[in-house]
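Practice record 12: protein with iron/sulfur cluster.
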Amino acid sequence: MRSDQSSERKEGLQKTAESLSSLAEEIRSCTRCPLAQGRTKAVPGEGPDRAEIFFVGEAPGRDEDLTGRPFVGRAGSVLDRCLDEAGIDRSEVFITSVVKCRPPGNRRPKKDEVEMCRPYLESQIELVQPKVVCLMGNAATRVVLDMEGVTELRGKVFREIFLVTFHPAAVLRNRNLKEAFVSDLLAARKKAEEER
Ligand code: SF4
């Protein structure tokens, strides 16, 4: 790579990092939807500026709300274990959710809350430019693809980049789903490697 190309790339990455962190700051102080009222901390998501694999869950739960970090509760432990089994390093992937603030009593996010929060997710995907986006569960699949039915859709890739899989909380409730979940993670890893 020529040195002017290399410095352009460095500049691009720096801008991405700045934009991602300013987006995260905006999310932390966001009051666009009613979920702002009940949260302890908003959870923007975390991961490298240019992660190859990007994960989208539904919403923060109690542990995430307290820490401001995504997938740190029991479902997070399932995700960690399954990432490990698939040979994926959590520190190398970007993890976020459809809404960034915890719905009261862990209820499903409402349609208007999802719509108010959607631009943040879209901007994050645009900035990170992942090679594969894993939509974990029905909420993420509905918001991004406008499709329902994870059981039938899982393991399939849509619009070349979106791979549907189970939500780790579903795997926590039903251990029989674990094998399929890990196999979807492996498929995500393979897809990311093939597109390098
Ligand atoms: S859920 Fe999203 S739109 Fe609603 S307050 Fe939190 S960051 Fe803002």
